[in-house]
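Problem: given the chain below (191 residues), write out its structure.
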Amino acid sequence: MSSAITQKTLKCFYNDALNGLRDSPIQVRKTSTKLVYIPLPGEQVDTFIDGDNGSIIKEVSRTVPKDEPFGSYIVISTPLKNSNTQYQQYFIPFSDFIQRYTFMNGDSITDSNKSIFSNDIITVRAKGTAIAFKSLPSDTPDGQYQQPPSWGPGIASGANHDGYWMASTQQPDEYYFMPIQHFNNDYIVDV
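Solution.
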């Protein structure tokens, strides 16, 4: 078993892509809708991704910080092709969320809207851009990589499948893996 690749190594892969040593990076735009809710402080959020042959893979588990007040974070969920009970989900600070998503009618989400998300699961529309570059099987044969700093310390898995390394425009030095199915569902090339 190999060790997880680091964020520094992912940055080197990105630089290789910029310099023509692997497929060039592409600018992509989010087009997806997501299910969201405000989690409780201390809630464990498990992220699953679709695997091969109808399987699912637990990519990472993270705990919502307990020392932050309720409403500081929001969970973003996407259904999986291979499961009706598990989701690709993660949480981000509410302040980042309002920059990346709108209500379905296109209206902006503000801090004053927090109460809407605290009692129910709501569908929202993604906005924004990211940089993507194709992952290679040799990048991480066991699929493990160091989580982006904003996810907290730890190792994520599942990157040994077809997909892309991604970095959001808001956090361009934080790389994460996006399986090809989710990439195709959630992004279009921004020309």
